[in-house]
Amino acid sequence: MAGAQDDRAREALEIAGRKLRRGEISRRDFARLTSMLGIVAVAPTALAACGSKATTGGGGTTASAGGGGGGKDSLRFLVGESFWANWHPYNHTAQIGFKIQRNLFDRLVEVQPDMSLKPGLAESWRQIDARTWEFKLREGVTFHEGQELTAEDVKASVQLASGFDGDKKQPLAMAATWGVPHKGEVVDRLTVRLTGEKPFGPLLNTLAITDILSAKDIARGRTTLENRPNGTGAFKLVEDKPNAKTLERFDDYYRGPAKLRTMTWEFIQDSQTRLNALLAGQADVIDRVEPDQLPLIEKSDGASAISVTAPEIQSMWFRMDKDPFGSNAGLRRAFAWSLDRESMAGLVGGKATVGDSHLASGIEFRSAQEPMYSFDPERARAELARAGGPVSFELASSTGFYPKSKEICELAKQNLDEVGFDVKLTLMELAAWIDMLFGKGRPGEVFYGGWGNLTKDPDFALATLLHSPGAWTGAHDRRADALIDAGKTATEPARREQIYGELQTYFWDEYVPSVPVLYSDLSNGLRENVQGYEVYPTAVQEFWPVEIGG
Questions:
Q1: InterPro entries recorded for this chain (predicted)?
Q2: Rounded CA gap, 202 and 223, in Å?
């Protein structure tokens, strides 16, 4: 259930923070871990504050506080993730932060529900050379506090977010997503050029998650950005409580005023409490609906559900820097042909689908691979024999974080034992699982876990875990590294498609650094009178077009 998952998320953040402070993991490993788990990764100096927020409120009895939706121009949105991060858009990877920021800020380009990009604050753009892009900004855009948007704001924002400016010893979290620092040049009041230290293929997708800030706010320093959001978005913050954020329509929004006058985002930890509030008409929209709750919503009077397949991949990850699998691709292929992945996806339900590439659903340049791995004991035994099997190994997983992880791993052990592997299944609490990932001696040979994507660009999906040193996977393959590097620095779409096509085929047929199991389900519930609401696969919500009907 989502409530249990939220408890695990808070536990994971606290564990990772302690390990960081004791020097047991690096800042980079801290960010990687929290990204993998899909939870908040804040600046280490803010851990104490975030921890205190995470422990307040969210109980099941609070769902009815404040009454129902609040009228036809007010909306109540119940969320399953607490508001852990402060308001600095570049210094966290909190999913809830990206969700609410979507409505408070704007970006040069905007991602759509189908993962495509459209013009945002930039009316148009062009590539000048391999490292430089020029953007033409919209006329008449203003920040909530009255400043006019100009090229100076974009220059300052991108330089700070990408790591070109700022504290080099403690870079902001967003700099890791960018990967390549970019310098801004003001051509005129509404024209800006961005130049990377090297070519950067994911530029547009990265700009689609980079909120544009006021240059004056940036100049005032980090404290200003942390304490109040001053964006150009459709809504502005008017009330900031630990477990509830109230937003009000920004009447001077460049696309025109939103249809809603106000909306309240409220943290309710327990998924059943959120569901009860929706069914009782006390909430207009709820997120993180569990797959087994979907039939209850669909059978109800006055509510419905929307489900999409998220760009998150849950996989069996090999320790690529240790035996028996790291040096034996044949064993990894035998493993892949041993799993009943269809049944595993069925255990999760909803919109979860079987993985058919090392790139998740919705990722750019993704291509389904053939033949699909299936539960084929005869083929698996043949591969195992050629690879020198059978072998013994440990398969480890946390429990209570990823949906049905225990059941999936139990089925995997059953499949693998039938083929001839000797599997020790270890199901552990989250703290022990994190110790396994980062422990001295790199314990364990295979582990089950997920990797979510903030953008639709394949570089974010591949570079952290499958390029050497491969974070906790220990990936180290010259051909894989060369292809990932080439994809990052190529800027022509046709060339990037060629590179990632070759990479996916290599991963699927030869290298097999992991076995994709499924792409995750993402479901929201809403009252039937809520109109214009869409679920984005990246888990953000945009309320500018939303209205409440009669």
A1: Peptide/Ni-bd (IPR030678), SBP_5 (IPR039424), SBP_5_dom (IPR000914)
A2: 30
| Candidates 3.40.50.620, 3.40.50.2000, 3.20.20.70, 3.40.190.10; CATH matching 1-101+234-302+528-550 | 3.40.190.10
pLDDT of residue 35: 52
- 19 three-state secondary structure: helix
Assign 41 a pLDDT band (cuts: 50, 70, 90).
very low
To the nearest 10 degrees (0 to 180), the angle between helices 27-37 and 2-21 is: 180
Element (H, E) at 90: none
Q: Please indicate whether residue 541 or residue 330 has the higher confidence score (pLDDT).
A: 330
Q: What is the pTM of this model?
A: 0.76
Instruction: Kindly report the CATH number that applies to the domain delimited by 106-232.
Output: 3.90.76.10
Q: Where are the beta strands (DSSP E) in 282-382?
A: 285-286, 303-318, 353-354
CB within 8 Å of 32: residues ≥ 6 apart: 464, 465, 471, 472
How confident is the model over 468-495, as pLDDT tens digits?
887 778 889 999 999 998 999 898 999 9
Peptide bond into 229 cis (omega under 30): no
What pLDDT is recorded for position 44? Answer: 41
C-alpha span between 266 and 252 (Å, rounded): 26
What's the confidence (pLDDT) of residue 239?
97
Sequence-ordered strand ranges (E) for 319-445: 353-354, 392-398, 422-428
